[in-house]
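name: query_chain
kind: protein
chains: 1
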Amino acid sequence: MPSSKIYQAMEKLARLGLAEIQPTRPKLYSALPSDDVVNQLIEISRRDTEQFSKQAEKLRAALSAHAERVRGRKAFVDLALGIESHVKRHMIHLTTARNRIWSYLEYAIW
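structure:
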């Protein structure tokens, strides 16, 4: 493993409060007491959960603001992988649609 990747990982652990850095040349890293690490992980988890919860509430409000537009109907999602599959499965419906159809095509590098 390249040492640059190790330094990157250690810098991230330090930013998260899970390790200490001694600013020397070369940089030295030290582990924190296990209780401090566990407490910090709990705090990170709690913060992320609260942030997710707030965003979910915003999503609920946004969706309920449009509830009257979709009353009695259910939205279905059809997954087509790749451009060719997307065109074959959806393009005819998109070109002849009389109502709005949401279509999403993303370019991915795998």
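note: Residues 58 and 64 are 10 Å apart (CA to CA).
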